[in-house]
Write a structure and sequence with these properties.
single chain, mainly alpha, 2 domains
């Protein structure tokens, strides 16, 4: 079963890349070889995350986790930042990871109102 989930997550992570490549290929854009290596590593990450994601028991959900990998990774980064006391501001529209800036950590009162790390884990 985990192999099926891994393959579905792997294909799910590649699906948006395939659509993006198809769209860009129509404009005669060439891609360097390292782009495909990075895409392969990204797809492996999608398969791994789909395998370890809690509650994912069917290949369909594993595909969805792989396809939504950027959202999953960004949510994890934000959660770790909040836990460590260094929240990360969302990227500006059209921006990427380079456009993110650190924001002041929320006060202890605000953190207490949000709950603990285990409350977050239970909500998953």
């Amino acid at each position: 079963m985990p192999t099926n989930l891994f393959i579905a997550g792997f294909v799910g992570a590649l699906a948006p890349e395939i659509v993006r490549l198809y769209t860009l290929k129509q404009s005669n854009v060439s891609f360097p070889n390292w782009y495909f290596v990075i895409s392969g590593v990204y797809a492996l990450l999608g398969g791994y995350v789909a395998t370890i994601a809690p509650g994912v028991t069917s290949p369909w959900w594993a595909f969805a986790v792989g396809a939504g990998l950027p959202t999953v990774v960004n949510a994890a980064i934000r959660a770790v930042g909040i836990i460590m006391g260094q929240a990360v501001a969302p990227a500006a529209k059209g921006g990427g990871a380079a456009s993110r800036r650190a924001v002041p950590a929320p006060s202890r009162t605000a953190l207490a109102a949000r709950g603990t790390f285990w409350d977050f884990v239970r909500a998953l």
